[in-house]
Amino acid sequence: MGRASLVGAAAAAVAVFALSAAVKAEDGPIKIGVLADMSGVYADIGGEGSVEAVKMAIADFGGSVLGKPIEVVSADGQNKPDIATNIARNWYDSGVDVITDIPSSGMALAVMQLAKDKKKIALVTSAGSSDITGKACNAYTAHWTWDTYAMSSGTGRTIVQRGGKDWFFLTADYVFGKTLEQDTAKVVTANGGKVLGQVRHPLGTSDFSSFLLQAQASKAKVLGLANGGTDMTNAVKQSIEFGLQRDMQMVALIGFISDIHSLGLKDAQGLMLTEAFYWDLDDATRAWSKRFYDKMHRMPSMTQAGAYSGVMHYLKAVKAAGTRDADQVMAKMREMPINDFMTHNGKLRIDGRVMRDMYLFQAKKPSESKSEWDLYNLVATIPADQAFRPLNEGGCPLVK
Fold it and tell me: Which residues make up the CATH 3.40.50.2300 domain(s) of the chain?
């Protein structure tokens, strides 16, 4: 056999193997991958809690769809796009139908491109970059829970409308922090407020004293914290030492219930932040959250609730479509309203943005709290069309 014949035979063998693997995957169980941060900075908002939330969704759905069992695989993406991409590629190639959680924006942007290439589905429930439904959007990705636009626009507009007109920003000195500050500043000024100044701090700094003194000297009434994680919590703790909370309203532009729980209400009291979910909103959120608490011994974050919500809607769409084909399932996901304990009559837009109400909360005073996780007072409900970016402004190529 000549060289050309050998090459042709090898190519044919590869094609046959690929076809047989695809057929085997199509005949196998429905597989859901949870690509999370299991031990790093996002473990509390996702991690094993997201895995458990997905398992709860599968159990509540009934454990099977289209006559096939539903299985879960999980892995630690370590918040590194290259590691996450390798895991996602192996999963998609071995029959995983949908990947969810995906905590960092770098991971999400990489995995969603792979989902597009493989014609599989990505349900981003933890990462927040608004580029996911903007210039990077694709037909196989849904951005389920929150994004940076909602945090800056919904929070900024609502607080200005409630009288918080003079702002000063304490900003982490990297792209994410700068973008968050700039987006919020635009909203503040567009709604009649003023930005009296800003100061930028190194990522991971331990000493905020000089930055907080500048904020105090500005005489602003609102301190917008355009940072997150330990930077946000450390800034709040140190602001108390300088007495800023007596004269300034502290606003966390990115914050989660785990941050408030970690801070404790003695330090967090009065802090305002926006979330997509809170366990104590109503009877339905309390009932689901109690089930989650019984398994995880902590109340769920909005991203963990989002993992449940996204997977449940996906499974309903698979059943309604009568197939696991990604194009048909995504079409059903956009067609069907999203209704569960987290979302009421929500809608998946063409750009991948899930339209749902957001909520502005204020951390309670210690004297107001009745239990360990009784942390928030609801200040305002922000309607979806006010919370999220208008469809024609994101630059999504799917929007005509």
Answer: 31-146+284-356, 149-275+358-387
Structure tokens at 17: 């193997």
The pTM (predicted TM-score) of the whole model is 0.89
DSSP state, 301? Answer: P
Question: How many Cβ atoms sit within 10 Å of the Cβ of residue 394?
Answer: 25
Report the alpha-carbon distance of residue 284 to residue 306 in Å, rounded: 14
Q: Which residues contact 26 (CB under 8 A, 6 or more apart)?
A: 324
Which residues is 31 bridged to in the sheet? 71, 96
What are the backbone angles phi and psi of residue 101, rounded to the nearest 5°? 75, -95
Q: Which residues of the chain have pLDDT under 50?
A: 1, 3-23
**Whole-angstrom distance, CA of residue 109 vs CA of residue 93:** 19
Domain 31-146+284-356 belongs to what topology?
Rossmann fold (3.40.50)
Helix, strand, coil % in the chain, rounded to nearest 5: 50, 20, 30
* Dmax (CA) of the chain: 86
